[in-house]
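About this split. The held-out portion is used to measure sequence recovery: a designer receives only the structure tokens and must propose an amino acid at every position. Recovery is the fraction of positions where the proposal matches the reference. Here is one held-out target exactly as it appears in the evaluation file.
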């Protein structure tokens, strides 16, 4: 069961997207399957980055902690996402902590084994460059939101980024993280986030429906987010 889960996770990751099934299976033989309970750390800031991880199931938050104990969530990782790859490949300590938001699992890819594999797989090296470029853009986007945008603008950006199409042709955002985690990801506190959500609902921009937030007025959300993109 673990081997099948590892292969599925690796195939969903950007690093191994070009690999044949048999080749992914051989990569999985070098890896370790890690099961995490809610709240358990995959690694902590400052630990030696002897491996990187591919999320197999659940959600893992990557965050830094300020001197006063507040969390800044850099990214919430889901199935197929890479965690800790930049530090592992550079041979430096992890710059942030990765912790399970719920029961989760991840594939541990040892740095030494991976570096040996790269030497024989040119496509893998190209995929690494692409994956690291995506991560750099993600970090830049987080910094921009936290320094240049207020909370409503950050919330609007988050809703636009995570909107999914439903069967009726509308769009929604799945509320699959706690309000505390979402607030931390937006660089605010739950109370401020709740007020922003209420204002959006009162203005007819969104509507709550169980564990979903229905997008009612996407153009207005774009204006609040400061984006005119389609």
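Reference sequence for scoring:
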């Amino acid at each position: 069961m673990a081997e099948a889960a590892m292969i599925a996770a690796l195939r969903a990751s950007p690093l191994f997207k070009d690999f044949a099934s048999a080749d992914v299976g051989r990569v999985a033989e070098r890896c370790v399957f890690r099961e995490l309970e809610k709240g358990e750390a995959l690694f902590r800031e400052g630990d030696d980055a002897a491996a990187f991880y591919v999320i197999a199931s659940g959600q893992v938050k990557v965050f830094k902690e300020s001197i006063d104990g507040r969390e800044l969530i850099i990214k919430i990782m889901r199935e197929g996402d890479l965690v800790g790859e930049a530090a592992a490949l550079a041979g430096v300590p992890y710059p942030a902590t990765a912790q399970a938001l719920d029961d989760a699992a991840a594939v541990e890819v040892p740095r030494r084994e991976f570096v040996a594999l790269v030497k024989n797989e040119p496509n893998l090296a190209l995929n690494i460059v692409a994956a690291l470029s995506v991560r750099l853009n993600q970090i830049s986007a987080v910094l921009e939101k936290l320094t240049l945008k207020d909370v409503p603008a950050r919330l609007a950006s988050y809703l636009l980024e995570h909107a999914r199409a439903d069967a009726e042709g509308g769009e929604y955002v799945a509320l699959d993280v706690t309000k505390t985690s979402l607030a931390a990801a937006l660089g605010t506190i739950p109370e401020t986030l709740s007020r922003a959500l209420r204002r959006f609902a009162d203005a007819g921009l969104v509507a709550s429906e169980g564990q979903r937030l229905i997008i009612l007025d996407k153009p207005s959300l774009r204006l609040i987010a400061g984006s005119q993109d389609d």
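Annotator remark: Residues 35 and 190 are 29 Å apart (CA to CA).
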